[in-house]
């Protein structure tokens, strides 16, 4: 399944494409699946997350808003961790596509799996 955690780490790799992040969703079919929160995992993942890209994606998908910035002590902010968990771990994109913001290459998503393969002339 394409979770927003995974999406936040994907970028376009088409030859000569230099600004292929973040990919934007097109016609997404969203499912939400509740999961048990793992606060330690979330805190450890925060340095790897592009916060602005995550906020942009959350806004694009019409999901509950995330704060403008990560709190100073995120491990102690229960409301922040709950919102982050919902966005990163409970939102699943089942189908649709991801589109590069620069070259407009389309990466289809079927059954929750993104096809990131490129044709020979795109590599």
UniProtKB/TrEMBL annotation:
Q: Which Pfam families match?
A: Trm112p
Q: Which molecular function terms from Gene Ontology are attached? A: protein heterodimerization activity
Gene Ontology BP annotations? rRNA (guanine-N7)-methylation; tRNA methylation
* Matching InterPro entries: Trm112, Trm112-like
**Matching PANTHER family, A to Z?**
MULTIFUNCTIONAL METHYLTRANSFERASE SUBUNIT TRM112-LIKE PROTEIN, UPF0315 PROTEIN-RELATED
Subunit structure of this entry? Interacts with TRM9.
State the family named in the UniProt similarity comment for this chain: Belongs to the TRM112 family.
Q: What is this protein called?
A: Multifunctional methyltransferase subunit TRM112
